Amino acid sequence: IYIDEFSHLASGFNHMVDAILKRDEKNKQLLSSFIAVATAALDARDKYTAGHSQRVAFYSLEIGKRLGLAPERLQRLYRSAILHDIGKIGIPDAVLLKDGKLTDEEFAWIKKHPVLGEDIIRQVQPLEEVEDLLPGIRSHHERIDGKGYPDGLSGENIPLFGRIIAVADAFDAMTSDRPYRKGMSVERATEVLLEGRGTQWDAQIVDCFVRFLQERTEHEQVK
Questions:
Q1: Nearest 5°: CA angle at 192, between 187 and 193?
Q2: What is the dihedral of CA 114, 116, 122, 124, to 10 degrees?
Q3: Model pTM?
Q4: What is the pLDDT of residues 2-48, one digit of tens each?
Q5: What is d(CA 111, CA 130) in angstroms, rounded to the nearest whole number?
Q6: CA-to-CA distance for 173 and 163, rounded, in angstroms?
Q7: Of these residues, 65, 88, 111, 223, which one is catalytic?
Q8: Is 223 in the active site?
């Protein structure tokens, strides 16, 4: 009788575990769908930055690999990076889509997007599925010297994902064409990153990214 009771208990436990696993898988699928839709919505709003989030996520992933991050952290980094600009959905069109130089007041609006992005992602339930993405989204415009925004963090007080995304974001912004200017060459953008190494951007992360660019160039030359 005790064996039968244990068997029923084990069977019930296994059913519970199976239900939890299915729920977790569904949560992951829903989160992936939300990320894809949110990114597409942002790209649709500003055709000139279409693809920016995907490129920043790709660059961030390559940096993370060279930092030796574990696969699970790489996945979280990728998701954080692809959502890094989601707060721009809350920026008025007159500011977000302006072709020329921004006024101080307009730039103040732009500077709100990291916090707006964090607020948007906080609405996702269950929160624990996205909570580890929030620091990178909020801090990707912080600077190593403490002159960034929104919190004026410096050095290693800036979350790692934020420091990684900052380098990837800056490089893609510099090398992308805009209506009012042509993008820099890869070589010039690399020089700018090296000039800001240790002041604007984390030195180790800049080094990892430059190494990735060199490896990519070497691979293309072999082809």
A1: 95
A2: -110
A3: 0.87
A4: 455 545 555 665 566 666 566 667 767 777 888 888 888 888 887 77
A5: 22
A6: 16
A7: 88
A8: no
